[in-house]
Please model this.
Amino acid sequence: MRRLRNHDGRPLASTPITALTLSVQPPTLAPPRTRAPGKQDRWTQVSQIMAAAAHRTWQAKEIAHALGITGRKPFNSLNTQLGYWTRAGRLTRTAPSTYKITLPEALTATSSP
Model:
């Protein structure tokens, strides 16, 4: 009987590989993300909060308070999202950690000569 290195059945000496069998399987798709019924995504919540007083700027901590976000990690996550929305043009950063919602400009009639 061969001596075993560990209790998992591996021998001390090398064993040559004489054959190899591969099975290729299609990748599994992740299930679609579902939101709880009636729950809005974060952008919808933030835009509703900020649009209610679109004339003013909002500090990130005010937005977090309105959303019920407490704790450092969730607050940092919100700050990351605010930065992403700023780069996407949805928000305007007016000062460090201070934002204003970007509303579509009002349509004005052009004057004809």
Q: What stands out?
A: The longest helix spans residues 72-87. The helical segments are 42-51, 60-67, 72-87. The first strand starts at residue 58 and ends at 59. Strands lie at 58-59, 91-95, 98-101.
